[in-house]
Amino acid sequence: MKKGVIIDDNKLAIASLKADVEDHCPQVEVVGSAEGVIEAAKLLKEIEADILFLDIHMNNGTGFDLLDILDTSKYQVIFTTASPDFAIKAFQYAAVDYLLKPIEPKRLIEAVSKVKSDKPLDSAQIKILKDSDAPEKIVLSTTEEIRIVEIKNIIRLESSNNYTTFYLDDGSKTLVSKTLKEYAFLNDSGFYRVHQSHQVNLSKVQAYIKSEGGYILMKDESRVPVSVRKKPEVMKVLQQD
Predict the structure, then answer these.
(1) 98, 93, 75: which is closest to 129 by C-alpha?
(2) What is the pLDDT of residues 48-100, one digit of tens each?
(3) What tens digit of pLDDT does each residue of 159-205 get?
(4) Smallest Cα–Cα separation from 14: which of 59, 45, 48?
(5) CA angle 142, 147, 114 (to 5 degrees)
(6) Does the first or last residue of the chain, that is N or C, have fewer Cβ atoms within 10 Å of its Cβ?
(7) Are the CB atoms for 32 and 40 separated by under 8 Å?
(8) Cα end-to-end distance, the chain, whole Å
(9) Where does 139-239 sit in CATH, by number?
(10) CATH code at 2-131
């Protein structure tokens, strides 16, 4: 049986999560809880634990502050938070999963099922992850889930009003309530905005078709229009090695 510790600055949240773990995850025994960074650090010196159910914003610091002072090779971490904004950072700390409050039992079960019996990443491996500046993943937050997607697997983005749809190379798509402008940073990862409503992964471009006003044919056979103003730039970019 795995031993779990809940770290959250809200007593009600601790009680609720403890009850959910007991009801839905019989393979985990909750052996303790703490309401802040200092209290948690002291507790983890006194007891053994396999899983940390860790909130981000807490008394006297954050969950990340706690991980920075722990020997993280001893634990597997499941973040539990009300904010979707730190998912990428959480996974840089080799988190098992990232659960949004209020936590659904189904998601809790899924997260715990990801906890492996083998040894977690060691401190050196985690340091490499934390020190890496190259963004390899992106967080897509929808009304139903937080989806962590590898940037290299994105074919294209298409916007409509204040929404953007991500098309992935596995054939799936994800709709997020953000404008295309907010994903301009993807240009540093090989993307290019070819139209007011379209941004493409240049590595997924199959061809530029000059007929029908000119459009880009992507590797998934989708057709992406190119704006008249952008055509000279797009042609130049696509001709580059």
Answers:
(1) 93
(2) 999 999 999 887 889 989 988 888 778 999 999 988 778 777 776 778 888 99
(3) 998 899 999 999 999 998 888 988 888 888 889 999 999 999 999 99
(4) 59
(5) 135
(6) C
(7) no
(8) 55
(9) 2.40.50.1020
(10) 3.40.50.2300
The predicted model gives 102-108 an average pLDDT of 93
pLDDT reported for residue 10: 94
Query: Does the pLDDT at position 127 exceed 90?
Result: no
10 Å CB burial of residue 225 (0-12, 13-18, 19+) is middle
Rg (CA), the chain: 22
Answer positive or negative: Cα dihedral of 47, 52, 55, 57.
Answer: positive
Q: What tokens were used for 145?
A: 């889930």
Residues of the chain with CATH 3.40.50.2300: 2-131
Considering the chain, tell me which residue range(s) the CATH 2.40.50.1020 domain(s) occupy. 139-239
Strand pairing report for 154-160 and 57-58: unpaired
